[in-house]
Amino acid sequence: SSLPVAAGFGVSTPAHAAEIDAVADAVVVGSAIVECVAGCLDEAGRAGPSSAETVAEFVGTLAEGVHDHV
């Protein structure tokens, strides 16, 4: 098909992202980002001052797996 294919299930490491990138046009990450966000929450369930930076760094490591694979 000429339609782009996005795939992702259990993607949580740069190696996983690279494996999906080898066979798809886009890598979808869901649960791993949710878990990363959850790890940034305080006892009251609020995001801390470095939450966005922590999540961005995590996503950046996944992107590096794709970029290193290209």
Please describe what this structure looks like.
- With 70 residues, this protein is mainly alpha-helical.
- It has helices spanning 14-21, 31-39, 51-69; strands at residues 6-7, 26-27.
- It has a two-stranded parallel ribbon.
- Strand 1, helix 1 and strand 2 (26-27) form a beta-alpha-beta unit.
- Helix 1 (14-21) packs across helix 3.
- The two termini are 21 Å apart.
- 9% of the residues are buried.
- The model has no long low-confidence stretch (mean pLDDT 93).
List the helices and strands and how they pair.
Layout: E1 6-7, H1 14-21, E2 26-27, H2 31-39, H3 51-69
Parallel strand pairs: 1-2
Descriptive keywords:
70 residues, mainly alpha, two-stranded parallel sheet, 3 helices, 51% helix
Bin the strand percentage. 5-15%
State the helix count: 3
Give the SSE order as H and E letters: EHEHH
Uncertain regions spanning at least 5 consecutive residues = none
Helix content: 40-55%
Envelope shape: elongated
Compact overview of the structure:
By secondary structure, this protein is mainly alpha-helical. It has three helices and two strands; from the N terminus they run βαβαα.
